[in-house]
Design goal:
The protein is of the alpha+beta class and about 600 residues long. The protein contains 18 helices and 14 strands. The strands form 3 sheets. The protein has a 5-stranded mixed beta barrel, surrounded by 4 helices. The chain has a 4-stranded antiparallel sheet with strand order 2-3-1-14. A 4-stranded antiparallel sheet has the order 5-13-10-9. α2 runs parallel beside α13 and α2 packs antiparallel against α16. The longest helix is centred in the last third of the chain and has 33 residues. The radius of gyration is 36 Å and the shape is elongated. The protein starts with 11 loop residues before the first helix and ends in a 22-residue tail after the last helix.
């Protein structure tokens, strides 16, 4: 059996280019289908191209903290608001300081502007307040919904499955007023229970103290608070906004909030823990129960405060064993407590969805701004100027692309077809991915990002040129096209990978160390650099392998760009056989 000839390379690398082409074709079809299924057929545009909303926030100091408006606190506030609105950081909402006490927030058109404005508007501090009383805020409310419970990390879960009462917790208005007085640390004198008729009318009018027991000053304040509580209609937007307005942390307050789809109203005691006592919070899924929960980690001081207040609440009955988490005067959660939560860690559980758990974790993590803000102005930004700049940029890009195509046609002739089709494949991948990223992570295309995409044309074309020149070098050495294509690939591949790695590294560093619009340039440049590698490996190389089998390219047609004569190819290298010397005749010798 004859042994295989040495030096003969396996044909697997050049015999199956169809597989690579099938992979990139499937990827293109899948991305295009995903784009249409998501109903996001165009990339989302940034505020400089599509217009949007610009919000100006003015910082103001709390009483007694006149020096709080400083550079450090303003930068902290910018970071918190930016994380609230942007999430991943590429959704193109711009947050930056202007002057000493203003923050500008630009929200592009096409995003959920109302939700973004709510995130920007939640600029007051976060507070944990004990619940003194609760009632339905809607005129017609559904049955009580389960109230979440709070438990310590590693402690037994304390959710008792109870439903929050849909009426005030005490049996009468007078006893509720007394409960408020006690919660406000005021001595409550015993008062007789009201009659049945009085109890029936308790929800329709404010209570009046018993004539036999003159109310103290604290009881009178509690009665006044109870009267406001009874009259409060949290289904009315104006009343919701005014409910807790002007309340100081050390004072009780009224507040509105949502439980499920229904509005509720609360009487809350003085704040015991503030948002700056929360070190970290996030929504996670409990692997044991398979439910979404919110975990909280407190600072050292916050842990002591939280342990103290939960220890006090654990001894009380519903709803006074609950604490309300209040942001901007609105109750965002009111978990119940059945034991003191020590150790600085706690979790909130009870009927969360993934979105609601993550939203609450986000509010707890980023809710504690060092300053309070008010909306100074809200304006609509037009995209006229950005549209003109985009038009000019696209014209410049089209001219540059046309010059590249002309150069390829003149210098590389038939090979220009490979380069142009490869650029088209890269453009399709880039467009569909950008459209999907706009829907998926909020990526918005701004002017610098467009510039990054235009620069990427040169990077992609450069990769083709490197490979073409390597093939031409092999042909100049006297090799035919098919072996030249395969021998040129390893050398070209190394050069392309090194070049693209440097470009990607530069884009990554630029994305990390910069903010705002420059990140859009860096992100687009990095994305197109990665796609350049994908296109060259899965399309350009396989298509060259297939074209090398055609007579037009393999024969070195003058218009193929691979004409050996035009390239100055050397004659084929052939080894001369060494003939053995004739045997010397002994006689002649």
């Amino acid at each position: 059996m004859a042994a295989p000839k040495k030096g003969r390379r396996p044909t697997g690398a050049q015999g199956r280019p169809g597989r690579a082409l099938a992979v990139i074709l499937i990827a293109m079809v899948a991305l295009t289908a995903g784009m249409f299924l998501s109903k996001q057929t165009t990339p989302r545009l940034g505020i400089d191209l599509a217009g949007g909303t610009s919000i100006t926030l003015k910082a103001k100091s709390e009483p007694g903290k006149e020096n709080a408006v400083n550079e450090t606190n303003m930068n902290t506030a910018v970071g918190i608001i930016e994380r609230r609105v942007n999430g991943l950081g590429v959704s193109e909402a711009e947050v930056q300081t202007q002057g000493r006490d203003h923050i500008i927030v630009n929200i592009p058109k096409g995003t959920n502007e109302e939700q973004a404005r709510e995130q920007v508007g939640t600029t007051a501090q976060l507070y944990f307040r004990p619940v003194l009383a609760y009632a339905d805020g809607a005129p017609v409310a559904p049955e009580g919904t389960p109230s979440p419970s709070a438990s310590g990390s590693g402690a037994p879960k304390t959710g008792d499955g109870k439903t929050t009462p849909s009426a005030t917790p005490s049996s009468s208005a007078t006893s509720q007023g007394r409960a408020l007085s006690e919660a406000l640390k005021a001595p409550a004198a015993p008062t007789p229970s009201p009659s049945a008729s009085e109890s029936k009318k308790a929800d329709d009018k404010a209570p009046s103290p018993s004539a036999s027991t003159p109310p103290t000053g604290d009881e009178a304040a509690a009665a006044a608070l109870q009267a406001k509580f009874a009259a409060l209609d949290c289904t009315d937007e104006a009343q919701r906004a005014a409910a807790g307005k002007g309340a100081k942390p050390e004072e009780p307050m009224l507040a509105c909030g949502k439980r499920g789809n229904a509005w509720g109203k609360w009487v809350l005691g003085p704040a015991q823990v503030n948002g700056q006592d929360v070190k970290d919070a996030k929504g996670v899924i409990d692997p044991q129960r398979g439910q979404w929960i919110v975990t909280m980690q407190f600072t050292d001081k916050g842990a002591d405060k939280f342990a103290k207040i939960t220890g006090e609440l654990a001894t009380k009955q519903m709803p006074q064993n609950q604490f309300a988490i209040v942001l901007d005067g609105e109750v965002i959660s009111d978990p119940s407590v059945s034991q003191a939560l020590t150790g600085g860690n706690a979790e909130i559980s009870g009927g969360f969805t993934q979105q609601s758990a993550q939203d609450l974790g986000n509010m707890l993590s980023y809710g504690a701004l060092p300053l309070s803000f008010q909306e100074d102005s809200v304006t609509t930004v037009t995209a006229a100027l950005g549209g003109e700049q985009l038009k000019a940029g696209l014209i410049a890009g089209a001219i540059g692309l046309l010059l590249v195509v002309i150069y390829l046609l003149v210098y590389y002739r038939g090979l220009a077809f490979v380069a142009i089709v490869s650029l088209m494949v890269s453009a399709i991948l880039t467009y569909t991915i950008m459209a999907l990223l706009g829907k998926g992570i909020g990526f918005a295309l701004n002017l610098p990002a467009v510039c990054g995409a235009i620069v990427a044309i040169g990077i992609t074309a450069d990769s083709f040129i490197v490979y073409f020149e390597r093939i031409r070098d092999e042909i100049r050495e006297g090799r035919t096209l098919r072996p030249a294509v395969e021998r040129a690939w390893p050398r070209a591949r190394r050069t392309i990978l090194v070049s693209d790695f440097v470009s990607f590294l530069a884009a990554a560093v630029l994305f990390i160390v910069t903010v705002g619009k420059v990140q859009g340039f860096a992100f687009t440049l990095g994305l197109t650099t990665v796609l350049d590698v994908v296109v060259v490996f899965l399309f350009t190389k396989p298509i060259m392998t297939l074209l090398a089998r055609t007579n037009f390219f393999a024969s070195g047609h003058p218009w193929s760009g691979l004409d050996p004569k035009r390239l100055g190819a050397k004659p084929p290298l052939r080894r001369s056989r060494r003939t053995a010397p004739a045997p010397v005749d002994a006689k002649e010798a």
